[in-house]
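hey so i finally got around to running the thing on that chain from the lab meeting. sorry it took forever, my laptop kept dying and i had to restart like 3 times. anyway pasting the input first so we r on the same page abt which one it is
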Amino acid sequence: MTRSSLVARLSERFPHLMARDTELAVRLILDAIGDALAESSRVEVRGFGSFALSYRPPRVGRNPKSGDQVVVPAKHVPHFKAGKELRERVDQLPPMIASASSSKSSISSASVGKA
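ok and heres what got predicted. didnt touch it at all, straight out
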């Protein structure tokens, strides 16, 4: 789901709100989460999940094209952990829906073989 599709869905669900107001609300919520993470704070939305920063230490990687060693600096990356209610809702999905992304890749590789 993209930001614009989220705004459209909320606008449909709450027709008394103008689309402009819905877009502003979504932007403010996402900006607040981003600002909190930028300040090294943790954000928790009960029933949905939590956003936090994970530290990745420096390491030596490889350039895949040349094979040369490359020093990758330390960094902080955002991390999302799903809450219990969200995990339970997702776990109740039928297997076809849950594995839609993996079946999509197998369809595209099957069509390549036929062409």
